[in-house]
Amino acid sequence: MPTESSKSTDAASSLYHRVVVKAGTAVLTSGNSSLDASMMAHLVDQLAQLRRMGMEVLLVTSGAIAAGRDALGQPRERRDVPFRQVMAAVGQGRLMHTSQELFSTHDITVAQALLTRADIDDRQGYLNVRDSLLGLLEAGVLPIINENDVVAVEEIGAEVFGDNDTLSALVSNLVDADLLVILTDTPGLYTADPSLHPEARLIPRVEKVDQAITDLAKEEERHPWSRGGMATKLEAARLATSWGVAVVIAGGGEKDILSDIVTGKEHGTFFTPGASKMESRRRWLLSGLSTRGEIIVDDGASSALLTHNRSLLPAGVKEVRGDFNRHDAILIIDAQGEKIACG
Fold it and tell me: Most exposed residue of 75, 80, 273, 294, measured as fewest CB within 10 angstroms of its CB?
C-alpha cells in the first residue's frame, strides 16, 4: 500500500488545490446502523491519494451518533436531543480512533476539530477557527471536522448545521477552498426522488441553486438516524457556490470517486461557482453567521445601492427588524423581500 512518505506522483493532475470532502452518516455506515470499516478504509485511501496528487484536504464527517448507538446497542429510531448527545459523546472517540488508525497506514497525521455555530458566528471566532485550520494544513496535518453534538442545546441555540452539510460549506468558506465534495448515498441530484420515482433522471450540472432546484428535494426519503438530506445538501451547495467554491454531490460508494472528480471526470452533480473568489471579510459577511438584523429599503434606495453603488441614506429605509449594535452584520432587503446586500 503506498504511503504519504513515499511521495509518489499520480499521472492525472488535479484541477484543484484545496478540497473539502464531506462524508455523511449514510456513507460511513453503508446505509446500516453502525460504521462500515471497509467503507471508511476506502474513503481514507482516496483522501490519501488526493494528498499524493499535491492537494490540501479537509474532511468533514458525520457518524459519531451512529458509532455511539452501535457501541451501546441503542435503537436507531430514537432521535431526541439528549439521546443524540449521549450517543455522540460515546461515538466521537470511536470514530476518531478508527480514523487515526486508517490514516496512519498512509503516514498521515490527523487532527480533530469539533465546532458549533457559536464558534464561528462572530468575526473573531471565525478568524480563530480559520487560523487553526490553515495552520494544520500548513503543518501537513489533515483536519477532521465534525459538529459538536455533545454541547448543550441551550448554548448552541435552535439552529444546527444540518448533518454537517452546512458545516462543510462553512468550512469551505473558512479555508477558501476550491472544491467541496459532498459524498452521499445517492449518485447526485435527480429530477425526483429515485426511491419513489424509478424514472427520475440524474442532473449532471446545475448553474444556479434557485427555487426550482430546491423544490426537487421536497419528496426525498431520509434515513431515520440522519438529520440531513438532499435539502440540506442543496443549501450547502447554494452557500458554497455563492462564495466562489465549486461543489459536487456524488455517491460515496463509487470506486475512485474523489480522484475522478478532482481530475475533471463527470460524476454526480456539479454545481457551478456563482461568483469569483472574494476576500475573507466579504465571505464572512455573506455567510450569514453573524447576521443580527435586517433593513428593508424602498425601490429608490435599492436602485442607488445596486445600480449606482451609493450609500444607504435614512430616507430610503422603510423598516428595521432585529436588535443590533455597531459592527454587527445586517442584511439589506428590498421592497419585494429579496436580499440585495449585507454589511
Answer: 80
Q: How many C-beta atoms surround the C-beta of residue 308 within 10 A?
A: 8
E strands present in the chain: 18-23, 56-61, 110-115, 142-147, 179-184, 205-206, 246-251, 269-271, 291-297, 317-321, 329-333, 339-342
Q: Outline where DSSP puts E strands in 204-267.
A: 205-206, 246-251
- Rounded Cα distance between 263 and 191, Å, is 26
Contacts of 20 (CB under 8 A, 6+ apart): 57, 58, 59, 60, 168, 171, 172, 175, 177, 179, 180, 181
Decide: 184 and 251 in contact? Cβ < 8 Å.
yes
Q: Angle at Cα 191 formed by Cα 186 and Cα 195, nearest 5°? A: 45
Identity (one letter) of the amino acid at 225?
W
Closest CA to 23 of 6, 36, 14: 36
For the segment 70-125, what is each residue's pLDDT rounded down to a tens digit?
A: 888 876 667 677 888 888 889 888 999 999 999 999 999 999 999 887 787 777 88
Q: What are phi and psi of 271, to 5 degrees?
A: -110, 120
Distance of CA 304 to CAs 118, 286, 315, 318, 334, Å? 34, 20, 12, 15, 11
Dihedral over Cα of 172, 163, 239, 248: its sign: positive
Grid coordinates representing 222 are 431520509
- Convert the pLDDT of each residue in 120-171 to its tens digit: 777 788 889 999 999 999 999 999 999 887 764 543 344 455 568 989 998 9
Instruction: Give this prediction's pTM.
Output: 0.80
